[in-house]
Write a structure and sequence with these properties.
3 strands; single chain; elongated; alpha/beta; Rossmann fold
Length: 113
């Protein structure tokens, strides 16, 4: 949402642009990092508009991906169609701790031996 006004520019200039929007209904990466550092979860979650409808309000096209299997077809369709598109995909950061902290620490300790 910090740069959503650029949708109007892209539509007005008749650009071919596909925006992949990772929707987490929060300042998700900041929220996750604060949690990993032991800080309380405060003020990091919020609601979002229907981004497919939001794109249409700017004269662009919008899609929402519901499953991981739907991501590639949605992106391919947007690229094939041309014009300005938002493809909104939900994202879940729950695996970050395992992958980006625990597994990296284990790997780093293994490398140090």
């Amino acid at each position: 949402m910090m740069n959503s006004q650029e949708m109007e520019t892209a539509v007005r200039l008749k650009l071919n642009v596909v925006v992949l929007l990772l929707q987490d209904n929060a300042y998700g990466m900041i929220r996750w990092k604060q949690q990993a550092d032991g800080f309380p979860d405060f003020g990091m979650t919020f609601g979002n508009p229907d981004f497919a409808a939001y794109a249409k309000a700017y004269g662009a096209k919008g899609r929402r991906v519901e499953t991981a299997d739907g991501l590639i077809p949605a992106l391919q369709a947007a690229f094939d169609e041309g014009g300005v598109h938002i493809v909104a995909a939900p994202i879940d950061y729950t695996e970050n701790t395992r992958v980006l902290i625990e597994e990296l620490q284990t790997a780093a300790l293994g490398d140090a031996r």
